[in-house]
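Support request, please re-run this one:
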Amino acid sequence: MSFGQRLKQARKEAKKTQDQVAKILGLDYSTISKYENNHSQPDNETLTKLADYFGVSVDYLLGRTADFFVKERDTHYIVEVKNPSPTDNKEKGLSEFENLFFYELDKLSEEDKQKALEHVRYLRYLAEQEK
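Re-run finished. Output below.
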């Protein structure tokens, strides 16, 4: 997947328009369009802002990793947060894996979250039985 495709995927995951992202990052909306269509590449500072805003790694945007994961966010770039996820709490000191877990969990329906909790409790039970 190209940089533009990854950027577009991250934007769609965030349910933002090109115009919204451009305004938040202080860019022209056509710039976001050029990035998504691979007609232009951002400079390093803009690339970092995009990664921070969407909560992904620069490596993901550049295609150096296939993992779409949430990293700790720099709230300086996040202007709009409607429903903060459990991963936004930096005080908990969550690992990258825990952040990924909560990011994925946050996307589930309440019913599926309950099922996931039951699975986790069962796995914990099995782990305790092995001790």
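Residues 69-91 have pLDDT under 50 and may be disordered. Helices lie at 3-13, 18-25, 29-36, 44-54, 58-62, 96-106, 110-130.
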